[in-house]
Amino acid sequence: NAREFTGKRILVVGSSYSAEDITLQLFKFGAEQITISYRTAKLGFKWPEKIHEVPLLIKIEGKTCHFKDGTSGDYDAIILCTGYKHHFPFLPSELSLPNGNIFNLPNLYRNVQWYGVTEGKKDASSGLFYLGMTNQFYSYTMFIIQGLWAASVIKDIIQTPEREECVEDIEKRYAENANLTDCFKMIASQADYMKQLSTDLNYTEVLDCEELYYQWVQHKLDDIITYRDKCYKSLYTLKDSPVHPIPWVKCYDDSLEAFISA
């Protein structure tokens, strides 16, 4: 509960969705100061005055935290938002997916079906599938389509190409990661991926949220505090969602009942 940090100096360690969201909750509920420590890159939003970003935390002495750029500060609490790593202790190493939070994965045709492409890996007779392993914008929609794709391959509804063609496609897509240098390119890449799975499946429902994601990212870049107040048009009803009457930063009751009654 962010209320327990009201009036306190908080260090948030991490630089992805969790760090962003927890930082905003801390700001909303009145933390005195929030510092975000990043390892590789800043979140880079236009933060309000009480939020700032610093390089990696390297040492803690009492309440004093020291950072890679030589700066330091005193904090009342540290919140770790460092994410997770995929871990497959139940699989032999030659069938275990290498870690990495990227959009196009090694060893997986269509980012789902396993092939032993990289060093130390081996094939699994086309019978091993991974779901939800990529970095993501589409998240649950993607999980569902990946599941349908895997089930269709298993049931022989979809016939995948020969191994050589699958491996060529895996390597081509993996190389494309180097070009995904901003959120807009990442969205476009995953939108194309979703369209590819839909084509494989002959799936005709509308899944293309590309333009909505572009709007969402731009709203965050414009104003990280107010982007949650924006509304979007449904791909199915073609109607704009209603505007919540209370700005997010002033809406202190996050319950479903309070949200609906407002």
Strand count, sense and barrel status of the largest sheet are: 4 strands, parallel
Order of helices and strands: EHEEEEEEEEHHHHH
Q: pLDDT under 50 segments (min length 5)? A: none
How many DSSP E strands?
9
Overall outline: globular
Q: Using the CA coordinates, give the radius of gyration.
A: 22 Å
Label the structural class. Answer: alpha/beta
Instruction: Estimate percent helicity.
Output: 25-40%
Strand order in the sheet with the most strands: 3-2-1-7
Describe the protein in words:
The chain is of the alpha/beta class and 262 residues long. It has helices spanning 17-28, 140-154, 163-175, 183-201, 210-222, 256-261; strands at residues 9-13, 33-37, 51-54, 57-61, 64-67, 72-74, 77-80, 108-109, 113-114. The protein has a four-stranded parallel beta sheet with strand order 3-2-1-7, covered by helices on one side. It has a three-stranded antiparallel beta sheet with strand order 4-5-6, with no helix packed on it. Strand 1, helix 1 and strand 2 (33-37) form a beta-alpha-beta unit.
